[in-house]
Each structure stands twice: as structure tokens, then as C-alpha cells.
Amino acid sequence: MSHKDISTFTISTTAPEGFEHEPDGSRDYWHHQALNTLPPHDFIAPYARHKTLPTPGIQNRKAWIVGSGIGGLAAAFYLLRDAHMPAENITILEEMTVEGGSMDGAGNPEEGYIIRGGREMNWNYDTLWDLFQDVPAAELPEGYSILDEYRIINDNDPNYSEARLMHKCGELLDAKDFGLSKSQQWELIRLMLKRKEELDDISIEDYFSEGFLNTNFWFLFRSMFAFKNCHSLLETKLYLHRFLDSIDGFADMSALVFPKYNQYDTFIKPLADMLRDKGVIFQFGTRVEDLDISFSGERKTVTGIRAVVTKDGEEEAKHINVGLGDLVFTLTGSMTEHTAYGDMENVPELTCDKHDPGDNSGWTLWKNLAKKSPVFGKPEKFYGNVDKSIWESATLTCKPSPLIDKLKTLSVNDPYSGRSVTGGIITITDSNWLLSITCNRQPHFPDQPDDTLVLWVYGLLMDKAGNRIPKTMAQCTGKEILTELCYHLNIEDQLDDIVANTKVRLALMPYITAQFMTRAAGDRPHAVPEGCTNLGLIGQFVETRNDIIFTMEASIRTARIGVYKLLNIPKQVPDISPTQYDIRNLIKGARALNSGKPFMGERLLHRLLDKTYFAHILPPLPEPEESKQYRFEEEMHDLLGKGSTVMHKFGVWLNSLRESLSDKK
């Protein structure tokens, strides 16, 4: 197809041969050259927001999307926006009775609210914001987007924390003191310098020293992202690169931005409502267990979908024919499969085997795909050890009580003000369960009463008895978990009053960090596995070039890659934001790792740059002006050796260089 109304020469509506839909910013050196029409691999700017022409024949093609989590909804979005597929040709198949997948939020003030988990966002989740700047706002008038709402809230209510780490029953730690020795800082630097291919099947505890794993930095990092020491070192490395620009905000959470409401009401409902309004079909009560795939040499084409449909409490097998040219997008694995629920008086009871989720689960489809071809990965690497992937969350619905009074002393703003409260999680470092608690902006649900607060608690470690309650967290009722929390907050003497005004709902999730399990190349399938002509894979168990997982960004990215590749749309999904290559982030990250003190060689950089245009990229030195010369000489002694004639000559040369840089002539 060509469009003569655009140009007198032929305009192709599909990408040319060899076009890279998923570029890798870390792969090679990018430079301008003849016939290069594309920006750098990780270029994020309005130029990457261009609209494409309709894909040839798109009016007659259909798409089947398995799963209505953020990944499935994103696949529908990009089919509409960038492929121009008619909305009525898109069907989303969902096992549950409501969309959202793991991004849920429900309940009421009478029975208590529940949120299984939360999401932390930062400003360079570029694929996330690409999508939500085109989704109508939930509360602002027509013409505004979810991104507009998000920016207006966060620009006027900056997020930060004043109580990030706690120990000894309520005593706050100085979270800005990362507690990393020079050798422990080098452990991090060496990890960042390693190539990804060197880290297959290596765990965090295989690499880091025991001392490192007990530092404030590691408590900040692991609690913020939910890493256990048995988890993947490779994923830790990817997180370090992804959040290099945020390291100096770990201690006070100032690197993060949070929504006004819970994740379902903020993201899922507005996106799903937009898709429905356009005509996308949602089919609930449908569990997809297998795909019929035709193999022809290396080509793999889905021809049918095998599902079980639940209607009026009865299950019925159903086969869906996938026509020629139709597309299928499906979730692989599930973080929240087999969630066990409990409450104030009842303990959650797991129904899955520790080494296999069994039949009829959210893992069944991936297991069946993996039997057909190795290109679909190895799901057993992720679901095969529940002890390493499990943790539990508790949602507290609170009326005024001593717990709220204590919360006020730990918060940035009054919890009832509508502004940010704790600014993120408060982690109790000497908790045997490694408990964290947070209170986001209130109300957290649109229908929440004015006198009610919703708090969220999670415990990362499930293998130890509590400090106060002699059971593991997974063996406890909501009341017992609340008791353990109050012990660590030093308010246990007021427990009766707190219990009388608090409802607790529990979610014990056996696979919640399954995506962090140690893995090797090939264990996770690509968004479009090799040879697949009409199948895209989405979600947290899909391989991307450089991005991390356990984020909304990852699910949206996999969906976007699948749509662009399968339809050969002449548009790229930019690699992750290039902040990891920015010298400013490298410098301020090094300063933060050194607990705010100048790192070795930093004063030398100041001597070189402090009278130049580039002086602003350096963090200010913490000492007064009159002692800077002494500190510089002390640093040079450490670098070059005391009494060294080389140091003296170098100092003379450096001063001469500085003067020449500032010489007006």
C-alpha cells in the first residue's frame, strides 16, 4: 500500500527487512550515518510518538488476548492506536469476573479493603507514560489524560519519606547512611561492570558478602523491590542499571511518584473503560489452558485456543478457532495464582504443591506451550520452589486509634490531608519477617469514608518465627500480624484499642516473586518467540532486552513489542531510558553509595571542572571553602602516595590547568 497524498514517492506501511522493533541500547555503538532514519535505540522524545499508517488488511484481522491484566489491556491499546485494528475485532479472555489481574483493589469499609500489592513508579517508565498519556483522565474533564492527573497530583504534592528504616521497637535509622564499606561499594560496581551473560543461575547470596547483605543499602534495596537473598543476581544487576538515577533517592523515596488512588482505580479501570467504550470485547469466566499450534519447519502458527468457560457455576470446554491472519497474545505464568486469603481471625491456607501449581492454574497454559517447543522457555524454573517465591501482605482498614496516632509521628503529612503520608514503605530492619508498612495518599479508594485510613503491610521472609509472635507470618491470623506490627512500633500496650478499630485482610501469595528466581538464557521466552507468526507473549515472565520485571512498565513493554513485531509496524519500542549512561547519575550514585561523602577521586574532578561550564554536574563538596585545599591534598595522598614527588608535580600542573581554563584570554 502506498499513500500518494503524503508524497510523490511510495510510502510503505510496513517496516523494511531487518527493521529492529526492539532495539538494544547496550548492544553496540550508535552513530549518525548515511541512510540512518532512526533515532538512538533508547531515544525517548516526542519524535518517538509518531502515528503510523494503518497496517495492510488490518480491518479483516482479529486479535485474541488471554488475560486482562495491564499487559493484556496494553496489547489491546496498541492494536487500536498503532495498528488501527477495529476495536470490535479484539476480544480479551479473562478467567476472573473482573479485569486487572494482579493489579487489583477491592473491598468496602464494613468488611475491610484489600490490595494484594502496590506499584512504585518513577518518571522514566517511558512505555507506561506513553500509554497513559492517551487514556482519558478518571476525574478531570474531557481532554485530560491519566498522565495529566498523575503529574498534577505529584507536582503539587512531592513524595518523600522521613522514616524509611526502623529498628529496636520504633527507633528510626539514618537511611542516608548506606553503611557500605569501600570493598562493599566495589561489590556493586563490579556487578554493574559484568556482562549479563556471565550471571546465569547465580543467586544474590552466591555473589555478595555476608556483610553487604546486612547493610542499610541492602535493606533499602531489597524491601523496595522485594528481593530475597536467594533470588537472581542478574535481575539485581538489571535493577541497578534501571534505577541508577534513583540511588540518591532510595533513602527518602524522593525518586518515586505515587497515584492518588489504588492501582485498580488509577490505571486499570480508566484503561478498561476506554477500551470498552471503543468496542473491545471482554469475555470473563474463561480460562485458557492450551493453544493449537501448527508447525511448518521453523514457523509456528496458532490455529486454535482451548479454554474452559464457567457459566452459572458450570464448567464447559470450548474451542476457539484462530483464523488465517488473526493474532493471539497471552500471559505466561502468574504472580498471584493460588493466592490464599485470610482475615482477623483466619489464617490463609495454601492449596498448591510447593513444587508444582497443579492443573487448571494460571501456569497451565505456559506449561503446555513449553512442552511444544523450547522457544517457550522453562516455566518450572519459576514455579518450582514456593519457599523462595512466597510472601504475604496485609491490608489494614483503620478507624482512629493509637496506631493512627503512631502513624502521624512517622508521616510527612497528616494522613487525613489528602497529601502523601509515609512517602513509601517503612521497613523494620530487625523484624524476623522483614516487615514493611506504608500509608499512601488517602482516601486510597474513591468510596472510602473520611474517618477511615487504608494501610498496607508486607513481610518478605516466611521462614522464621516472629519477634513477638512465635510463628511464621504465614501461620498467623490478621490479629497476630497486627500484634507483631504493634510490637515493632512500640505500641503493643495499646493493642486492645487498636484491634477494636482495625480490620485486617490477608493475602498469602506463593508465586509473588517467582519472576526473581535464578534463571539462565532461554528460561524466559521472548515477546515473539522464534518462528512464531501470530503469537505474542506478555507479562512478567517474558524476556526483554534490558528492562526489569515486577513492574507495570515490563508488562506494557512486552505487549507493545508483540504488537509491533507481529504486524511489522514501522515503529520501535525504545530501550529503557538511557539515564544509566549519564555521567551525572554515575557521579551522584557514587556519592550516595558512599553515604553522602565524596568518593575517591571526586575532589580531583572538582579541581578539574569547578571553573568550567561542566561544574554543575558535581555534587557540592560538604566541607567549608577554607578546608577544601587540605581535603584535596589528603585525597591526592591516598591516590598517589604520601610524599610522592609525582603528587607535587601533578598538583602544580593541575592548578596551572585550572587557571588556564578560567583565563579570559
TrEMBL record:
Spans annotated as Disordered: 1-24
GO biological process terms held by the UniProt record: fatty acid metabolic process
GO function terms (MF aspect): FAD binding; oleate hydratase activity
Pfam families cross-referenced by the UniProt entry: MCRA
Source species, domain of life: Bacteria
Gene3D superfamilies in alphabetical order: 3.30.9.80, FAD/NAD(P)-binding domain
Signal peptide: none
Xref: PANTHER family: 67 KDA MYOSIN-CROSS-REACTIVE ANTIGEN FAMILY PROTEIN (AFU_ORTHOLOGUE AFUA_5G09970), MYOSIN-CROSSREACTIVE PROTEIN
Official protein name in the record: Oleate hydratase
Organism: Marinomonas rhizomae
